[in-house]
Amino acid sequence: MKKYIIPIMILAITVALYEQVSAEKNVYIMVVAIVVFMIGMMQLSAKTPSKNQEKEDENVQ
């Protein structure tokens, strides 16, 4: 899944940057690109364990 998310995120950022420097800016394309990037970031960061996970496990026991 990770191998699909990262290229999609790179494509979304590329589209957003291209729209930013173009003469006619389309706000809707930029918003969609940013939303796609943020959803990808949420999916990638959901798999990262918390730093406090060991402390939380010790408190439960």
Automatic annotation (TrEMBL):
<feature type="transmembrane region" description="Helical">
    <location>
        <begin position="27"/>
        <end position="46"/>
    </location>
</feature>
<keyword id="KW-1133">Transmembrane helix</keyword>
<feature type="transmembrane region" description="Helical">
    <location>
        <begin position="5"/>
        <end position="21"/>
    </location>
</feature>
<keyword id="KW-0472">Membrane</keyword>
<protein>
    <submittedName>
        <fullName>Uncharacterized protein</fullName>
    </submittedName>
</protein>
<keyword id="KW-0812">Transmembrane</keyword>
